[in-house]
Amino acid sequence: MNISYESLITANEILADVITETEDYDYRLFSKGWYLSQMQQCLEELSFDTFIKTVYTDDAFPSASLAYSLPENTFNVKNIFVYNGALGVPTDSQRVLWKRGGYTTGPDSSFFAENKAGQDEDPYIAHLSQTSEDDALWASIDNGVIYFSNAAATYSYIHLRTNGTLTAIGDAPLIPQFFRQAVKLWVVLEFYRRMRKRNPRMYGSLFNATHDELYAPFRGKWDEALARSRTLDTKARNDLKEYLSKMNY
Q1: What's phi and psi for 163, nearest 5 deg?
Q2: Of 1, 14, 125, 186, whose CB neighbour count within 10 A is largest?
Q3: Is 121 helix (H, G, I), strand (E, B) or coil?
């Protein structure tokens, strides 16, 4: 499957499909902002399931706090590196290993951890070799914050590789065309979910039919969207990542 700008659609195009289904043409039942919010939530869920966008982040190392908050709309940290040189141009780099439950309280030699040296359950300990624990590069992640060891502060920059969501809908978001039907049905389903509380007799059957169309095993539009996204070859994935990275998220 090839990705181009022509195969990415805007939220307004999906909104036109949705309004045709809901007949809420003048937004008397729900605001346009509500519909856009539902699209955003759908794209978040699709992103979590497909991991279709990889985000690369370079930033100055937080030497004062040894703690770094993950960038907005990113999750699932794949790799952490520290390096010297210039931002995004390393003259050297070192991979930072994950340490279970470790965090520092500031730029000194103290730190807390579920396991310290001598307890081989910790993934990074096997890599210590002749390096003392105080000199080891490690990090832990808790509630979206990366906590670094003191040794990491000898480097000037960090580089993160994470997954990101196809979210942050603005005035003109672009959505992969193969997600179109899934996004449309998600929004329509949320519309019927809320309207069913007001009028169960009128909207109950519509909710059930839409739910089946979206989530039926193997033939539902949700599974179809996931399957199509996974057929992207490497070139197409990279192209899609490039197009998405050019948006002002």
Answers
A1: -90, 150
A2: 186
A3: coil
